[in-house]
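Q: I have 675 residues here and want to know how they pack in 3D. Can you give me a structure?
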Amino acid sequence: MSGSGGPGPGRRTVARSARAHALAVLRVRSTALALALLPAAAAVILWVGRTTGQFGPGPGWDAARWSVTGLAVAALACAAVAGLVIARGRPAVSPTVPVEERAAPDLHALVRDLADRLEVPAPSAIALTPDCDSWLEDRTHFRADTGEGGARGAAPVLVIGSPFLWWMRVAELRALLAPVVAGTGPSAHPDIAAARRFVRGLDAAVANAERPPDPAGGPGHASAWGPGPPGPLASPGGSGPLGRAVCAGAAVLRRAVHRMVGPVARLMLRAAGPYAAAMEQGVAAAAADRAQAVDHAMRAAAQEQVGLAYAGWDRLLTRVALPAWRLGLWPTRLDAGVVSALTELSHRDRLAEGFTSRLGERPACDLLKEPGAVDGAVSLLAARLFLGHRPPLPMTAGPREAAPEWTPVEWSAYPEEVVDRIWRAEAARLFAALDAVGSPSPAAAGAPRPAESANSPLAVGHPAPAPVVGAASPTPEGDRRPLRESDGLPPHDGNRLPPLDGDGPPPTGSDRSLPGDDADHGLVGPTLARVLDRFASPGGIDALAARISAEVARAEAASAPGVIGASPGAGPLPGAGSTHLAPLAPMGLPLQPPRGGKELLADHITAAVCCAAVDTAGAAPGLDWLDGPALYVDGRRTSELSALVLALVEDGETAGLRDWLAAVGVRPEKPVRLV
């Protein structure tokens, strides 16, 4: 049974419009070719005129003929080089996980059945992407240049968002893919296929011209010219002196050619761009119209699931996966996690009620033979998209590929491997900042908080001047000074603490005070009592927040896995060639807005409180599928801690947090384990 129902007048009109815009794109190519042939045509006319006597012999005519001939040869040579670069240019290929037919025969059968019902060619392959989207991607350039099979004009690859397979049911996935698969019909039209190849080649040429120099270029280097065979003069591994010289020369020549072709390709792309956009709109409209009769009743429900899956996927990545990625860890079951996140959402949000009833139907991931293995591959790809390959350690020699790979982490180990490590690192940063900033001066301790002073900058709507972090400042008389070995006490080391069990007095060095040290009751070491004492004397809170902000900014500047707070960085993606760079906002993820100093300070105090609760009150780190790291006390997630810490930071209110600590059973005077 055909789902197309015959080509209607609307579909024929849309198809004609798409073909008309494809021809307009090809006319841009023809115009460029005509301009390149114009000097050659003029030279032919001059030489033919000489033989017929129309442009008789003479020094003037001979000079004109040779000048035009030289210009024609140069124009043809430049056109040939530009055409070769454009034709051989490999556009960026979306990083995906291929799904072979032997690994998912039911999924391939579903797609082929859709293509038969729509009377269009079946996609040439199926791949998964860690994103909530599905599309067709023509990879003829990539497949032909890398020897992976395929020829020009072959059907495109069907790319499916992996969260759809785990969250959607089989019928919903079929309805969702119907309009996408229908797009293979226009892709087989020769004019549309030629126009797309031309635009992709222009786009690749422009990208190659704007790409920074690649030091790895040379014989055998995969680039816009194709992979190429290994250089005959290069030693094994390309490390010989002559081989390196050839590589450097080839890279310089290739770069010069790309720079020369870039402006021409950019000009043609600007001329063909509006027609190409209109062509793609026409193709999409024709595909949607063709798929109207296939699973029409289910399509509305499938679209609802798309929006819900995107919301759960965004929360899972930004709040659950992101903290692990920044540690160099990758959760191995992201797609299974999105099911848990959306199920949790259905329990919390009344708007999502009823969605769990559909979970009894067959999930689309059952179309895969080994869903767990596929989920793991997609999850690793998501981690690489975010931060790329892990860079080598500072003392590690060797190429980037020799660096340690990402470390997998199961959901069962997430609280211990991710949540606890983040809390310990942030608590260590907090106490290091306390050590660096020192105690508030007596004048600052007795002064009102900035918000209470009528003459303070905050009272008139102006921010207080930020303290200079790292500048040397005199220590006021009477302030607590750090304990040194000369005092007969061991130096403070947050990484080496005595056992925390027992009800005896705190370890030596963690509660010793010096004469006159009454600004913070003489508390030193990583204890919550020291933190609470600091906020009881409000002076220097801004300096503490600024210090933590500077440390977080330094970690973000490092942009390396294993550093708490590192931001995503751009880097070559594995398997995507040298023309594709990881975006700063991968998979459409919004980068987190910069947080203020007091917000960061509140996060670090919360981490210290959580560490103390785990160490002394029997609490446990846990995972909330929608909010990420969470603290569980007696098996119940704590929800009031963040508000209490915010009141401490903003208003200096310590009573609420002290009462909570007493109710939970946390002893503020006990040291916090920082490792």
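Q: Anything worth noting?
A: The chain has a mean pLDDT of 75. The chain has 19 helices and nine strands.
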